[in-house]
Amino acid sequence: MAVAKFVQGSILRHILVMSSTGAVGISALFIVDLLDVFYLSILGEQELAAAVGYAGAISYFTTSIGIGLSIALGALVSRSIGAKDTEKAKRLLLNSVVVTLLVSIVVSVSVCLFIPELLSIVGARGHTAELAASYLYILVPSLPLICLAMALGNALRAVGDAKLSMVSTLIGGGVNAVFDPILIFMFAMGIEGAAVASVMSRVAVFIVSARGVVVKHQLFGRFNKAHFIADLKPIFAIAGPAMLTSIATPIGNVVVTRAISDFGDSYVAGWAVLGRVIPVSFGMIFALSGAIGPIVGQNFGAQQYDRVKESLTRAIQFCCAYVVVVSLLMFLTRNQIVSVFDMKGDAAELILFFCTYIAIFFIFSGILYVANASFNNLGKAKYSTLFNVGKATVGTIPFVYFGGQWWGAYGVLVGQVLGSIIFGVLGVIVAYRLVEKVKEQQAAQPNSSTTSEAVIKVDKVTEFDEELTMSSQSPLSSSCTNMAMITEEQDCEASNKVAELIGFKGEKPPTK
């Protein structure tokens, strides 16, 4: 049985260790994504960087659907493993994989049929739209591969093999890094070479993950139509809200990209560079959103509510300190960033503006990630969905629109920041109040022996069970970085522990 290591010792130390180790693997993938834009910028066409920005907005949306499906698989399989019901785990894994494959094929075909129209929606025009379309026509058909890879990666984490899951993503990143320059320069394929390298990366991740699930852990069972139909309800009970949560951020990203496109491709090229620089610069904050979840979850399961509250406080303090330091570094190196990517004119000015005035406000995005991770581990993942969808819509659309109307492309960034401030502050307030509410309800039931009795007052057990392991997503731009954000090394430990306390109370594994 997994050891609840976070219920004692320094919380700040747990946060630092979890975030730093998670950031190592995540940042490696962010850097690979950044290299895509760097290599294309060497070709001297800003339209290429702009095309990647437009294409990224659409591909980000498609892979987010896969993230929601993979969350469902991880949650269901981890609970069966926690209940020591291996046969049920095999059945749920196979049926979840089939659902993932079918949904991803439908999405892939649908997107391929309407790529020109979708690019028009995000603001791509002329030659830039043609470049973006050539990229997507190669990348989008491989969507089933990356969706299956993410699902199988979550299955590996569900059985405690988080290391192999991370290794699979690192191998995929390595394949991308190696073949990017070869295809872009040696074979003179340009943006199409970058797309082919990404497809090869997806194939590599899928092969490693599939081998781990099928060969190493032998988790694949036999398909049974009756079982498949019966499992559709629990799968979509988790996958539905998870997909809604996951696609909220790419919708917001599409809104911002569309607003910036009104001012020209040069600004979009600058935005595409920022979309790759931000994850590299703030990779520790993205790792923090994955690190804080298990810490909150274990202390919540142990009914140590003061430590839950302290976990929130320490995570927010760490987030603020880190963003201040990184923002200062971005300000000091702003001209070098522009020079490295050979950005000129409006693209360069947009990058300089971000590094000078906007980067510091990433604090509010970071604290919202912390709040969402807390919601997910306190049985209130619906709050996470609400805040994610709210921030991507009412927290983005009006602010970005009026910001663009009043101050141009710079106003779009300012508007996005204003929405982040509002939802970040509200998210933290609600998170603290939720902890106090659960603490008070537990205190009112002194004879309860597990947190499940307290949680029933907050939500029905079934709702809590369904929402337990959803992961909050961050606004990144590629399948590699999206996949990295669900590789939370210790997530399966916390979820299995709480699953035994709540999800399977009174259940026994079937006798053979």
From TrEMBL:
Pfam families: MatE. The keyword Membrane applies. The chain crosses the membrane at residues 12-32, 52-77, 97-122, 134-152, 164-188, 194-214, 235-256, 268-292, 312-331, 351-371, 383-401, 407-432. Keywords: Cell membrane, Membrane, Transmembrane, Transmembrane helix, Transport. It is a multi-pass membrane protein. It is found in: Cell inner membrane. InterPro entries: MATE_fam, MATE_MepA_subfamily, MdtK-like. PANTHER family: MULTIDRUG EXPORT PROTEIN MEPA (PTHR43823:SF3), SPORULATION PROTEIN YKVU (PTHR43823). This is MATE family efflux transporter. It comes from Shewanella youngdeokensis.
